[in-house]
Amino acid sequence: MAKKVRYDKGKGISKIDLSKEGRKLDRNKEIEHYKDVIFQCGKCGTCRTVYHDVDWARVCPSGEFGNFEAYYLGGKNLLTWAVTSGKLNWTENLAKIFYHCSLCLACTQQCQIPEIHAYAGEWLMAMREEAVKEGFGPMPEHLKYTESITNENNPYMEKHADRLKWLPSSVKLTPDAKLAFFVGCTSSYREQSIAIATAEILNLLNIDFQILKDESCCGSPVYMTGQADKAKEIAEANVQKFKEAGIERIITACAGCYRALKDVYQNKFGLNHGIEILHLPEFLLKKIKDDELKFSKELNMKITYHDPCHIGRHMGMYRQPRDLLEKIPGIELIEMPRNKHNAWCCGSGGGVRSAFKEMSASAANERIEEAKATDATALVSCCPFCLNQFKTNIKNGEIEALDISELVRKTI
Ligand code: SF4
Ligand code: SF4
Predict the structure, then answer these.
(1) What mean pLDDT do residues 220-240 have?
(2) Domain membership flag for residue 8
(3) pTM reported for the whole predicted model
């Protein structure tokens, strides 16, 4: 194992495959695959706080809420080792500890043991799948939303027939376009301003696009709670729909959908769909570069940016949303102390918001306080799930929560 670990200050370390310096493992495997490296964890506690840059600021919403070692990565590693070596049996309480985790992966960024840094996210996920196989997962709230996805194609217990209710009659769709705007469940039913802004931006750019009449949940909420078989079923049905509609390119404004379509479908489920998947900021940056997107209005706003875990640590996309924000006239971006790979999670992912509301709210409130302390007037993200979490938890309008799509829409 290498003695020296590379760290690119300010750029983050999530794109560096430290496994090259340690033992090379595969991703998306069952827990058996990882069990021999988990015991390398020295229980040092470094994964509790930011290792560089920000004065030992805390990073783990689960550990800070549970206030006990088992809830941090070091504790979860020890429990994983005990289960995989037959020293500990699954119980309801053990499963609850593993589900008290937003799978934000901030802990993995701090650990300097190469295999743990590179693969701990894989075994945190694999332990959920194991909990499901053993009959201790997912949590009852996850089963409820999975049932809603089965019956109505969304986790919000809303009617599938209402999925496109947000769509203004002024938006022009091109039914046979090769480009699809994948709206996702949260923008369709909860944060419809993102759906409207994105569709209007595409119209203003004269881009032909369609929205699948029968669009369904991407399956991310099911996958993230360890229900791999069900998630694969959803993924296969979606890919079939994309193929039938002749889709070659998909734009989404949702971080969770983006990761599911681009990474999970292909690398976990082996669905090599060959469709180009783009998150809205990277698509808009291309349009700016090609001189096709021009801003005609100016905002006068100090904003701060929250990195959604699903595009940040899970996909390594830190630069594009910031580059886009910096191009919007009249925007001053003030970074929070914990940003990019060190960003504190909003607390809604990994099934935490539905199953463990108190932990979820405490994570959101910590992020909102951090945003307020920057003097920004708006907390901006590029994920409807983060936006919904902030809007739900911001009290008395102390700071405004916005999506990057809304800022772009206001200025073109
Ligand atoms: S996961 Fe890494 S940082 Fe955390 S306790 Fe183990 S060795 Fe230390
Ligand atoms: S993934 Fe996030 S919530 Fe889970 S143990 Fe790591 S830092 Fe804590």
Answers:
(1) 98
(2) no
(3) 0.95
